[in-house]
Structures are given as C-alpha cells and as structure tokens.
Amino acid sequence: MPRTTPPDHPPTEEEPLYRRIASELLGELRDGTVPPGERLPGERRLAGHFGVSRETVRQALELLRRDGLVATDRRGSHATLPGPPVETPATLTFPVGARAATPGTVSRATVSWEPPAPDHAAALGLAPGRPTLVHRYRYATADGRGLRTAVTSFSAVALAEVEELARYRDRADGTAAAHLRRAYDWMRRAGLTLHHRDTITRPASTPSVRVTRRVHDQYARPLEITDLVVDARQDALVYEFTLPGRAARPATAGASRRTPP
C-alpha cells in the first residue's frame, strides 16, 4: 500500500480521527489500491501507513466491519475486503427485487430483532415467538409509484454460521439503515453453498405480485426466507439466468477425440 504523500491528520471536533482513517482506507479499497478479496495488512503496518496509532486503526476497522465493508477471518485479527460474488449479481441478489437507488427514488433498509411472521418461522424451523434477525427493504419513486417491499427473516443456522449477520443483533433496533447487500457473499465465504427457490403468486384482489424466496445450504438447512411484493401496475420484475457452459471431457489414453455436436 504505497503512499505518495505524507500523512497529515490533524484532529477536528467535527470528525474523529478514526473516521477519517476509515474513509481513507475505504477509498483505497474502492480505487483498487487493495484488490478485492486480498488480505489487508496488519494493524501495525496500517498504523505506519496512515501515521496514526494502532488503536485508531483498530477503531477505523471496526467501523468498516459494522458496515459490512471489511470482515475478519477466523485465522487471525487481520481484515479482508470481501471478494466479488461467486455468482453473477443478476442471478442471486439480496434481497430479492433490490434495486439501485437513482435520482428521484427512495431506497431504505433496516433490521430488527423480533419474532418473524408465523409462515417465516415455520419455514425456518423456529419455535413460535422466538425472535430472529428480520430485514425490511422498501423502494419507491418519489411520487410513490413503482413501490416494492421485501421482508427477510434469517434462520438460527444463518446467524450461527455467518459472523457478519450475527453482528447485527446488537444494533437491530428497526430504525438504523442496514443494507445487507453482501449477505449472500457472506454466506458463501462462510462455506455455505446456496440453493434458492422463488415462488411467484398473485395475491387475491390486489394489483401486486408476490415473490417468495427460500434459501437453504448444501445440507438442506434453511438460511433465509424473503417475501417481495411488487406493484405490477407500475413496475416489472426481471429475472436473469446464466447457464454454465459444457465442460470439456478430459482426454484418456487410447481414446479418439471428436468435436461434440
């Protein structure tokens, strides 16, 4: 992480020093100074790099962890920038139906710790009344058209296996913004293979379309369930799929090769 200019971080009353370091580090992650997925240097090297104390670096990293931008692996205290999704983003995005905020639109996501809806609890194997992490997403144009909402409930397995999700429990008050866009990436990085099934229905006497997504792992354990509701009069739900190419057969001794049709 070479630096071309000497560090100069005079503390200000408006912005704590660790927040300034977090912003600078995030800038280096985004501009490619640190390639996605590469392990970050240790706290000592980062402190020397930015010309601050290790405690300041520690606070800056914790701030980025809380936002899901940096994660700590189980092999040590070094941080890693989450790498790119294993699957193309169009094939499996969290939450289902999420859209990028653009001028004139409103996008908001929050998390709470509460008992999920009865059908969610049943799908996740949770006892009635048992609380879990619940994510709510809302997207709409400024005039209220094009409305889509999504409610996701996570299972006990997801919270036990995925450290990044578990961290949200202590601050899941239902008011603070919490965009868990990398939730599926976090699950894959925890060693989980994701399988999902989307069910599309038309609620009676409404102009909406409902999409229910259920995600489980390689052991058939439920991870999360999401209910997305889209106003079909003003919006369209687009699904994209990428099919893997046919793998080439390995050549064997004595076998003749031929080009598959």
Kindly describe this structure:
With 261 residues, this protein is α+β, with helices and mostly antiparallel strands. It is built from seven helices and nine strands; from the N terminus they run αααβββαββααβαβββ. The strands form two sheets. It has a seven-stranded antiparallel sheet. It has a two-stranded antiparallel ribbon with strand order 1-2. Strand 4 and strand 5 (148-154) form a beta hairpin. The relative contact order is 0.12.
Notable characteristics:
disordered N terminus; alpha+beta; about 25% helix; about 260 residues; globular; 7-stranded antiparallel β-sheet; 7 helices; two-stranded antiparallel sheet
Strand order in the largest sheet: 6-3-4-5-9-8-7
Number of strands: 9
**Terminal CA distance:** 50 Å
The unreliable regions are 2-8, 83-90, 244-261
Return Rg in Å: 22 Å
Largest sheet properties: 7 strands, antiparallel
Global mean pLDDT: 76
- Compressed to H and E, one letter per element, the order equals HHHEEEHEEHHEHEEE
Apparent shape: globular
Q: Strand fraction band?
A: 15-25%
The number of helices is: 7
